[in-house]
Every structure is written in C-alpha cells, then in structure tokens.
Design brief:
166 residues; 7 helices; Globin-like
Length: 166
C-alpha cells in the first residue's frame, strides 16, 4: 500500500522528471536490456510506442496514486498483453530494478531513501495489478500484436536509435 506521504513524494519527483521523459524512457530501456538482454526480443524494433506507453502509465499512476482503482483496468489489460508477448513474472522484478536505477540516475540527490521507498511501494502496487492481468485468459495469444511491452526490457535505446538512423 502506498501511503499519502509516499504519494506526495512520488508526485513531486514526477514533476521534476516530466520535462525529461524521453531521456528517462531511454535510460530505463537501456538499463532493462543491460539487466536482461533477452527481453529485447519481446519489443518491436522501434521503442517509440513502448516508451510512450511507459511514460503514460507512470504519469497516470502518479496522478492517480491515491486511487489506483481508476487505472486498474488499464493495468490489468496491459499485464494480460504483456503475458501474451512473453513477459514472465521475473521480468517485473527486473523492470522494477531498472526503474529504480533510472529514477536514481535522473533525480540524483533528490532520490533519497524515503523517495526510493515511495517509488518501490508505487511500483509494487502497479506491478501487482499488471500481474493480476497476466493471470487472466486472452482471446487468442497468437493474434496479439507485437510491441507495447512496458515492463519488459535491453543494450540500448541509444544504440538502437543510432542503428536505425544510420
């Protein structure tokens, strides 16, 4: 459970991160693939859509941290789709580690132990809803579109972008 004080810390830190969301998403995916390179196979060649979804989900979660039930259906559906893409339970742990590392790098001295605890609690609440969705049945996993994996993830967004540009 995320306390009111933790919600305030997370919201305050998100305000600082919003102008940097593109960089934050790149850091996240770079770190995710560094921690588990096999996750890169689960993502489309371009990380534009997953990066946008990552930022949107985090933004919605931060904005509604006092009532995650508002976005719970979206998170459960995302968890179901992630399962269909091949995301396993352990990948959520890796994604959480990548997220905390990314926040620490991005917020620097503002990423205090209390801030870390607040983000850990928030991520636990979000990932619990994603995992609930992963337990639901899908209509046809073979027809699931590839891409949009938020919580799975890579050697780098920057490397990939350079390869696509050149």
């Amino acid at each position: 459970m995320v306390t009111a004080a933790q919600q305030t810390l997370v919201q305050h830190s998100w305000d600082k991160l919003e102008p940097l969301v593109t960089h934050v998403a790149e850091l996240f995916y770079d770190r995710l693939f560094e921690l588990d390179p096999s996750l890169e196979e689960l993502l489309p060649p371009s990380l534009t859509k997953p990066s946008t979804q990552l930022v949107q989900v985090l933004g919605q979660a931060v904005a509604g941290a006092n009532d995650l039930s508002r976005i719970a259906p979206v998170l459960r559906e995302l968890g179901r789709r992630h399962r269909d893409y091949g995301v396993r339970v352990g990948h959520y742990v890796t994604a959480g580690d990548a997220l905390l590392w990314t926040l620490e790098q991005s917020l620097a001295e503002d990423f205090t132990p209390r801030m870390k605890e607040a983000w850990e609690a928030t991520y636990q609440a979000l990932s619990a809803l994603l995992l609930e969705g992963a337990k639901t049945r899908s209509a046809d996993p073979a027809s699931a579109p590839r891409g949009g994996v938020v919580a799975a993830a890579s050697p780098g967004v920057a490397t990939r972008a350079r390869q696509q540009a050149g």
